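Here is a protein:
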Amino acid sequence: MSRRYRRPDKARTRRLLIRYHKHGDHRAREQAIQEQLPLVEFLARKFAGRGEPVEDLVQVASVGLIKAVDRFDVDRNIEFSTYATPNILGEIKRYFRDKGWAMRVPRGLQELRQSAKEAIRDSTVKTGRSPTIAELAEALDSDVENVAEALTLGRAYNTASLDAPVSQEDQNGDTIMDLQADEISPIEGLEDKILLQKAMDNLKDQQQQILKLRFNEGKTQTEIAQTIGVSQMHVSRLLRRALEDLRGQLGEIDEQGGQPQDGRNGHPYDEPQVSLRGERAGKLDNEA
């Protein structure tokens, strides 16, 4: 196929579609599809360079074309390409939304993220400033926690290789892997781990479960709600309270000098089930 789009004859396309829809001529349907394939390739190539093979995008766009052929109303006074183009583009965009993520993200959050991006753009144009999360939540008829979670999903779309250089200006410099903690040296961060385990041991069982699901297993609030059998809104409140209590426990331990004592769930030197992943207070503040 040529990369230059050559528009099929409009009158011929309409005749073929009338034969298919009015008389059940499936051969006419196949001819219409074949003659519109240049439009499919033209639109698919607009999305080239986004990490997906052009051949795959053409296949996806072809599905959109077939749906457009089958759904087209020949009684409407509209050109087929005008009707088919948004259908094909929509199919490609759904493909990127569902398949292009490096990590599995719930469909609802993907759609909320897209709606939030559009709302931010519209609000910025109207007011000259970016909206707050609370304003976005009100505009989208959602809650603050869901909107905040949806806005952080961009980092799940693409992942970086551990062998990638930290600085783009120094391709031979340190990699992400070089800056990771050395697992051979268990002393690194041991004090933080001991203190965190002690603080976790003093939380309620449900709080420990929620924190482990959120930080150890990386589950979203919606997935946690399904696991423990409560609403997502309730999980949001429970998670916020658990983080507040955990911060309080860490503060008390720091005031006491951080001396580890036996916890109710095991020896204080057992490996903690929630990773700090950095400074204790900083991580907890970011989640809350």
